[in-house]
Amino acid sequence: MTDTLEPPDEHLVSLSKDGNLDAFNSLVDRYQSLVFSVCYRQLGERTAAEDAAQEAFLAAYRALDQFKGGSFRSWLLRIALNQSRDELRRRMRRVPSRPFEASDPGEPAIDPPDPAADPAAALDARSLSDALERALAQLPADQRAVVLLADVHGLQYDEIVAATGVSIGTVKSRLSRGRERLRQILARHPELFPRSGRLHDRGDA
């Protein structure tokens, strides 16, 4: 059986810039789960997250000529985070905020893909309990974003810097404060969070 090597992002982006829609759809397939996950945990509502994820991909497609290299994943996540922030601002102007619910009913317009199809989604499915979902929702949005990117999706510091648009010092500070706040929240409800899933500080400085 011959393994099929996936084309690198750079190749697909180049084809997409030349108008190859199939190439861009391959990028959508590759990052749909990740973008949806980030939007969902920033917004706490499935329908809003689906809309933000779709808008993020549309915005990325329209702005492809502005992508000059580096990590396409980080560039795409920055767009997704911006879309999520814009949606949060719109929601705050329209209606009072409601508490985050770990699971909202309804069928998604973008299916959160089978975790087996995406290593980031597989990590996500294994490591996040409902208790952690609720704890994450209590973090300030800026801290929640870096915790998600670092501890759930495994991005390196340089990718998080590119995705969030802040300095590495700010990323480290937000990550440290976010992890500490999570520990404090979860410590109040130890019976809800399995020992094997507890967050541990990795000693990042």
UniProtKB/TrEMBL annotation:
It comes from the Bacteria. Residues 27-93 form the RNA polymerase sigma-70 region domain. Residues 130-182 form the RNA polymerase sigma factor 70 region 4 type domain. The keyword DNA-binding applies. Transmembrane segments: none annotated. Keywords: DNA-binding, Sigma factor, Transcription, Transcription regulation. Belongs to the sigma-70 factor family. ECF subfamily. This is RNA polymerase sigma factor.
